[in-house]
Specification:
Oligomer: single chain
Number of helices: 11
Helix content: 25-40%
Structural class: alpha+beta
Largest sheet: 7 strands, antiparallel
Radius of gyration: 24 Å
Length: 430
Amino acid sequence: MASFFSRTIFGKPVEGVTFEDILSFCELKIPEGINLDYKQDLSLPTKLAKSIATFANTRGGLILVGVVDDSDDKPVVPATGMDYDEKMPLTVTNIILSHIYPPVAPQVHVCPKGKGDKTFLLIDIPESTDAPHWVFNKKELYIRVAQRSASGSWEDFATSEQYEWLRNKREKSLDLRWRIIQNLDYHFKECIKKRDVGNTTIYRGDQVTGILTRLLRVSVSPAFPQEALFAVPQSYELVKKIAVQDYYGTDYWFPTFLETRHVFQNGTITHGSFAEPEEYLFSALDTSGTFVYNETVIKEQVGEKNELSYSLDFLYIVARLDQFFTSAANLYKEIGYSGLLRIDVVLNGKSFMRLVLPSSGFPSSKHVSQGANFMWNSEVYTSEISEEKDRYGTIKSIIRELMYMFGIEYFKWEILENYYKSVNRYVFDE
């Protein structure tokens, strides 16, 4: 299996890949695998159609056209490319429409011409939500395999069980994702029920409700999980590899409590509290590629008349979303996953909580929520969180709806952008 592929193998989005980028990538001699394929040219349309369909039926992947592979499935270097033809994207489209049902809609990118009018063609196929995709007059159904099949092909006939999975992929995957999230939620609740003091564990079940009603919950996972993408021991190492520096000052790293992380049956958990016991932080990485972060972000304040009030720090939320999506992007790059993601953001809050805004550039009056809870979800591709500018676009979409919750319809987005661009000034010194 390629160690990194699709939108991430070149360190940039597919549409920005150059002729020289592919030459450099081929020098790495990464073999073909479940997510990567090499084709010499477009002269064998049925083979190309078969590869595109199997990627769409499995985990998605990338086809590099203009690259010859050797007996070890590695690219022959130096790669030379193929003759440039402005109609190449149309050729790929016609191959798909002629041979694949239902059709697949990959991203096709023609690299700028190199020496001697040579070029490369990149075909980026996402994991499909419309599977199964049949080929050759709807008669044959294939999946991509991690090791060559007995016939020597990377494509293998789908078994009856695999066909049923593909046919009911959406429903089964949605149910699996729901069960994964529920399991992580169970572990979270069990973690906050107890507090370790010395060698004694104090159970504090009565505080769980208070924590759950002041909580930010963010999760990201493959939109249609099917199987474990890595082992439990690997999840323990991955949590540290994907961590980013916490520029808001809660801890040195995000996720927090990395040195006290521990494994459970399906992944790795980090959790703990700062200051008061009810100020709680929790993260979990499941072997399915599901990444979850929970934190109590709504602050309690006691007024002069002993009345409780609640507030939410706007910039703190922006920082947490930025750090979470950056870590998530690191995760999917590390495990070599590229495809559709499901993102959920939930704020279990309090009615009439106040939004704390920066002093300049934002509406000056106090803004109080009418409702208690906020929910946002979306399906995005890994590329939409892999680059900073794309992450900012995703965060902006979330923040826009959060502002509506507090009755704010208009404010200067450039203020948020300036803050977003300047957050590195808070990074701790090495």
